[in-house]
Amino acid sequence: MSEEQAAEWLAPFADEVGAALERVLAARRYAATGDLRSLQGEYP
After folding, report:
1. Is-contact 26 4, C-beta < 8 A?
2. Cα angle: 40, vertex 41, 43; to 5 degrees
3. Are 29 and 35 in contact, with CB atoms under 8 Å apart?
4. Partner of 34 at 20 to 30 A CA spacing, among 13, 24, 28, 43?
5. For the chain, what is the HEC assignment?
6. CA-to-CA distance for 6 and 3, rounded, in angstroms?
7. Nearest-CA neighbor of 26 among 9, 12, 6, 8?
8. What is the pLDDT of residues 4-38, one digit of tens each?
C-alpha cells in the first residue's frame, strides 16, 4: 500500500485517537521496516 493510500485509511484512526497523521504514518513505516529513523523524522 502506498503512503497516500495509507494516509486515506489511517486518517480516521488518527483523528479518533487524537494523534497527528504524520506520527501515525511514521509508526506504520517503523512497523514495516524496523528502522527507528522513521519515528525520529529522518526517514527518507
Report:
1. no
2. 105
3. yes
4. 13
5. CCHHHHHHHHHHHHHHHCCCHHHHHHHHHHHHHCCHHHCCCCCC
6. 5
7. 6
8. 999 999 999 999 999 999 999 999 999 998 888 88
The C-alpha atoms of residue 4 and residue 28 are separated, in whole angstroms, by 12
CA dist 14 and 3 (Å) reads 15
CA–CA separation, 39 vs 24, rounded Å? 9
* C-alpha cell recorded at residue 23: 506520527
What angle, 0 to 180 degrees and rounded to 10, lies between the N-to-C axes of helices 21-33 and 3-17?
A: 120
